[in-house]
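Hi, does anyone understand the following?
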Amino acid sequence: MHCAHFVAGRCQSCQWLAMPYAEQLALKQQQLLQLVSPLAPLEILAPVASQQQACRYKAKMVVQGSCEAPLLGIINQQGQAVDLADCPLYPPAFAAVFAVIKQLISRAQLTPYDIAARCGELKYVLLQQSYHSGHFMLRLVLRSKNCLAALQKHLPWLLASLPALSVVSVNLQPKPAALLEGPEEILLTEQALLREQLNQVPLYLSPQSFFQINPELAARLYATAATWTAELTQQGVPIRHLWDLFCGVGGFGLHLASNQMTLTGIEIAPSAIASAKQAAAELGFTQVDFRALDSAAFATAAVSPPDLLVVNPPRRGLGVELVTAIKQLAPAYIIYSSCNANSLAADLTLLDNYQLLRVQLFDLFAHSSHYEVLTLLQQRAKTA
């Protein structure tokens, strides 16, 4: 991928861009092997490569400049504001949307926030596109409600200018700190959810929902987990009860579930649980129980294990409390998806009553050191 900003030294966010992509992938695989080799995995599969550009369907842009000439991008290590509206990581449609957003900033007089002076209103522009439909969700992170009336006044113009824009919201982040968003979200459109669809599974994204940045690779990640599950059932493994912890909007659970099993999905965010329930109903699943709870607290209080446990924790990993609960419950099989191979390896080391059957790398974050890992574990036979 060629990037003029990287070549000029303005943006080094893709820290591995100077390395040929095949070498990037090989280096990630080598790093993963070093972490999991002490765990004696039975099968290490080939890594799944990403598209090298136009692969990120979610943008988080710092707003700088002025109302008349806004910049959407980053503040680099030199303290310079760099406009990345033409970043090649985003699909081509993003550039046109960014151009209209800049017009909105000028029309509504949304003064970019000045970090040093602690004044101004507009801090970030968060833009997400549905891989399936091409529709967009736009979130504007503001310091206060001072510009809400101006935004509502210009909303009809914005929606007319961008017919693919489905959801628009304002997030309030009043603190003078490096926080991307605050807890309060104000919807400006009647439509509150962006509909995604991967592998024929609908997924509904609310403004504050977590979702993978690379939906093409996310689809392959979910499909692989579904294939591994199907192979277990073909081998005669009874999977009657499935748990999906840290389930988000239901991506893993809804890909793996069927009406021949019960699915319990646990996620701390109520909005994500509401989205998962909506998708499950659309799929016609009848034995589904999605709950807004802490995953560790749920597992600790449980009295019987699932046949298959799926976990997709944040970067910090499962944590000692949840690992302890999993070891006590002792589900027969675990599918563990991780965005941090170091915390994954630490958790798997603690889960010493499990055999690591399969490991596969999914390169959701091309040109960076990050990647996703999918693993399959089986409970070891108990010794007398």
